[in-house]
Design goal:
Blueprint: H1 5-8, H2 19-33, E1 39-42, E2 47-57, E3 61-68, E4 71-78, E5 83-95, E6 98-102
Antiparallel strand pairs: 1-6, 2-5, 2-6, 3-4, 3-5
């Protein structure tokens, strides 16, 4: 379902929102965090463009780089099962594999 940007903007809940808009934004954010837009599996060293709302390591993984809103990571080691959440624009692996959860379709 497309969200009219004039009504909901960027889905961020603000103090300017009335209660019904706030509840709708929170519901949409929860749906997104539960994988509403699917996921992609990556096990290579290519750069992968988002937007992603989370990545989860399927095995011990080294992230060569990851960037997004207030995110700038290089050479980070993730344990199997470790989950990183945020507004992720791109991710590149050195080794290992991840599931990247899409934040839009």
């Amino acid at each position: 379902m497309a969200i009219p940007s004039r009504l909901y903007g960027d889905n961020l809940v603000t103090t300017a929102d009335n209660e019904s808009v706030m509840q709708r934004k929170m519901a949409l954010n929860q749906e997104q965090s539960m994988g509403k837009y699917g996921f992609d599996y990556y096990n290579d060293t290519s750069a992968h463009a988002g937007p992603f709302c989370a990545i989860q390591a399927c095995e011990a993984t080294i992230v060569a780089s990851m960037s997004g809103q207030d995110i700038s990571i290089t050479n980070m080691t993730l344990a199997a099962g470790q989950l990183l959440m945020g507004q992720i624009d791109s991710v590149t692996l050195t080794s290992g594999s991840i599931v990247a959860y899409n934040s839009s379709n």
